[in-house]
Amino acid sequence: MGYSELTVDDICAEAEVSKGAFYGYFSSKQELLITLLEEDAAEVDERLESLAQRNISNVDRLRSFAREMCERGTDQARVQVRSDLWALILTEPAIRERMVSAVGRRRAMLRGWIEGAVADGEIADIPANAFASVLLALGDGLTLHGSLDPSGFRWNNIARVLAAIFAGLSGDKE
Question: What is the DSSP letter of 27?
Fold first, then answer.
């Protein structure tokens, strides 16, 4: 069952809480979804910040980010929430606004790493913003495809393909 069919009663039954308890934390079903979006965004942002603080090369940060997005794609509950979010960004301005903000922050962080990797000669000279967008869209797109057909691909194979892409960009023979 997706977000649009889900009722507060369904949520309360699944969580084994009363409606009073639900409304003690959330004013609506939409607020719950926004909270889930913000928690998911904070988790990704924390991971990006952690990678930024590590004493590793920019290309290794990018590789780690891509690997972690593949790992996140294996979590079916997360996949369902993200699928619902993508469906709702077209009709729910508050959700769209938060999603645009989160994606913008991530794109800026990745763009900086890509620019650093290019400047350091770690990868070929490529448009940093475009590559950052590709990495973000790849993670989201694969998550959506995985929710459509979970048997359509294996995440470990996606990780292998991403490793080959990075190897090609850096001239490695990985």
Answer: S
Whether 85 shows a pLDDT value over 80: the answer reads: no
109: domain CATH number?
Answer: 1.10.357.10
Whether 2 has a pLDDT exceeding 70, the answer reads no
What's this model's pTM, rounded to 2 decimal places?
Answer: 0.78
Which position has the token pair 């080959």? 164
Who contacts 131 (Cβ-Cβ below 8 Å, separation ≥6)?
110, 114
Q: Are 117 and 62 in contact (CB under 8 A)?
A: yes
Report the domain count for the chain. Answer: 1
Between CA 51 and CA 116 the distance in angstroms is 14
Contacts of 34 (CB under 8 A, 6+ apart): 94, 95, 98
> Which amino acid is residue 8, in one-letter code?
V
Nearest to 145, CA basis, from 100, 62, 82, 51:
82
- Domain annotation covers residue 24: no
Q: In terms of Cα–Cα distance, which of 70, 68, 63, 57 is closest to 166?
A: 63
List CB contacts of 55: < 8 A, sequence separation 6 or more: none
At 107 the pLDDT is 95
